[in-house]
Amino acid sequence: MDDWDHWDHCTADDFFARDLPRHTQLIDGSLVFSAPQSDFHSLTMCALEHGLRRTAPRRLRVRRQMCVVLGPEDVPEPDLVVVDAAADGGPDLMSYAVRDILLAVEVASPDSEERDQDTKPRKYAAAGIRHYWLVRMDENDRPAIHTYELDPHTGAYAPTGIHHDRLKLAVPFTIDIDLTEIDRL
Length: 185
Known about the structure:
Blueprint: H1 12-17, E1 25-27, E2 30-32, H2 39-55, E3 60-64, E4 67-69, E5 80-84, E6 95-97, E7 101-107, H3 113-127, E8 131-137, E9 143-151, E10 156-163, E11 166-169, E12 175-178
Parallel strand pairs: 4-6, 7-8
Antiparallel strand pairs: 1-2, 3-5, 5-7, 8-9, 9-10, 11-12
């Protein structure tokens, strides 16, 4: 393994040239290492991934934990992304360009809460990703999906809803996901 723990600043080019642990991200030029996933995190991602794949138009693809190059010092790895099918670069593809991302989804966990609630949405909005979802565990240990849409006038995300048992939306495409499915996974 590369001696990456001495780096105090990294570029996207450095990031892709190094042998880093899986699910490492680059935020503001700093490497961010992910903690192991909780069962809630894993099950929520499965339920959303299945629901998005089932409802996404053919022109779109749903991808899990793929890097997105936002800029020279930012390569986050959203939990899920919906991308333009034309961006599919085959099995060796390691990242997507921000222009190909329609939706970024983050499932918050204790080690990522601040990044998922503040840092990443600001960066996603500044990069022009039109839709962002933040998933949190509600008081009943179930997913609460906070949906946002990019306001073109402010360049920031505007909240569009909080969804608990059912995620039913008309944008970015027609979506109807039964969130209680998580109980059966």
